[in-house]
Amino acid sequence: MADGIGAIEGVRQRNLARVLRIVHLEGPLSRAALTEATGLNRSTIGDLVSELAAAHLVEERAPDPSRRVGRPSPVVSADSHVVAIAINPEVDALTIAAVGLDRAIPARARLELNHLLAPDETAALVADQIEQWRRSPLAGTRIVATGVAVPGLVRASDGLVRNAPHLRWTDAAIRDLLEQATGLPTVVGNDASMGAHAEHLFGAAQGIDDIVYLNGGASGIGGGLVIDGRPVLGAGGYAGEFGQNRPGIAAAADRRAGNGVLEDEVSRVRLLAALGLTNADEPTLAAALRASTAPDVVEEVARQRRILTTALTNAVNVLNPSVIVLGGFLAMIAEQDLDGLTEAVRSQAMFANAEALAIRSAALAEDRLLIGAAEAAFGELLRDPVPAAA
Q1: In 3-state terms, what secondary structure has residue 139?
Q2: Which among 191, 170, 294 is positioned nearest to 237, based on CA atoms?
Q3: 204 with 363: CB under 8 angstroms?
Q4: Quick one: 247 and 292 in the same domain?
Q5: Given CA atoms 381, 89, 194, 365 in this order, what sign does their dihedral have?
Q6: Is residue 162 classed exposed, middle or buried when 0-12, 13-18 and 19+ CB atoms within 10 A define those classes?
Q7: Where do the coiled-coil regions begin and end (predicted)?
Q8: What is the per-residue burial (b if ≥16 Cβ within 10 Å, else e) of 313-334?
Q9: What pLDDT, on the 0 to 100 scale, is given for residue 274?
């Protein structure tokens, strides 16, 4: 008898998770649409939605009054008062955002820095920002967890940052530090892997099963992979470090870094230097590149595009993705002529591997890493939204 009750409870919990995940991923849906999406009957959907609403995880509102045909069906959406804190430490700034379960971003801060962040300083700054936001604009919200997108190697088993070379973090227990400072559960991952996940769920690769994602940030170039619809992390969680590959450079005149790796040649720092800037957030850098016609800037962009083309070609030949998504400054240099970059990659790649290839800019733009970090933070809630003991 107990086994039967346990089985029923397990089904209920899986269905609660299923409904919550659907409205989180798809946005507001009517009960009728949820019934169709899940294959459950209308009564069961009503019970599940009521339970999620009682737990303050979803909200219901009256149907569109313009709808005049058939029985009205209430609209269900993720509760906007449930948020995760997304964190992205970089060499030039610490970015923190509150991301809602409804995917809104009600609060964001970019703390520009003139020094490298230490892990304990990061935790203290995040805790202070959260306390400020709890007074306003996050008063009345439920903060479920924090997610950290780190530009470096993160051990999947426990979130230990094994090496974030540009931050100079080695074996940094940032998860433990943040949990102690904030009192919130914390999930830590590689920034590019989180960006890839976000673009797969909500962005330029939504609905695509085979993706290569490259992120260009202040700390260099990282990557994320989705193969057959599943994130590929590698044995320890370190897969996707495209920036550490040795670049193929056909013209000796294009080489700037001796025997450097890809991120030494295709570099945000070099773009800023060509523009005469010392620092810039992504929108500012993108606007400066679009506006500049200076010969040094034009040539530097062209040089980096040539080297990036070969790097992307190697990825295509090895992984045969449907889509390559580029984020950060890589998207900026690609957008100078996205069709031209795609054709250049196709011309260097094996024909069969590249014949259906698309190269796209990250649709989530500067939010991609934050949304990816928040998605990791929401993971436990989405798996078990209303625990049996609650």
Answers
A1: coil
A2: 191
A3: yes
A4: yes
A5: positive
A6: middle
A7: none
A8: bbbbeeebbebbbbbbbbbbbb
A9: 98
Q: Based on the fold, state whether residues 265 and 358 are members of the same structural domain.
A: yes
Which CATH number covers residue 54?
Answer: 1.10.10.10
pLDDT per residue as tens digits for the range 43-64: 999 999 999 999 999 999 987 6
The pairing of strands 211-217 and 220-227 is antiparallel
- The residue range of the domain holding 146 is 82-194+369-383
Same domain as 341, residue 277: yes
Same domain, 163 and 284: no
Q: Considering its fold, how many domains does the chain have in total? A: 3
Side by side, the strands of the sheet bearing 58-61 are 29-30, 75-78, 58-61
Q: How far is CA 77 from CA 49, 118, 149, 200, in A?
A: 10, 39, 27, 21
Domain presence at residue 201? no
Q: What are the start-end ranges of the E strands in the chain?
A: 29-30, 58-61, 75-78, 82-89, 93-100, 107-112, 142-150, 153-154, 161-164, 169-172, 186-190, 211-217, 220-227, 230-232, 323-328, 358-361
Full-prediction pTM beyond 0.85?
yes
How far from 236 is each of 10, 163, 195, 227, 373, CA to CA, in Å? 31, 13, 19, 17, 19
pLDDT tens-digit readout, 312-345:
999 999 999 999 999 999 999 999 999 999 999 9
Q: What is the DSSP string of 248-282?
A: P-SSGGG--STT--HHHHS-HHHHHHHHT-S---H
Same domain, 326 and 373: no
d(CA 234, CA 224): 11
Q: How confident is the model at residue 177 (pLDDT cuts 50, 70, 90)?
A: very high
Residues 224 and 300 placed together within one structural domain of the fold:
yes
**11: helix, strand or coil:** helix
Q: Are residues 62 and 152 in the same domain?
A: no
The verdict on 154 and 229 lying in the same domain is: no
Q: Report how far residue 251's alpha carbon sits from residue 254's, in angstroms, rounded to the nearest whole number.
A: 6
With respect to residue 199, please indicate whether it lies within any of the assigned structural domains.
Answer: no
- Under 8 Å between Cβ of 49 and 31: yes
CATH of the domain at 144: 3.30.420.40
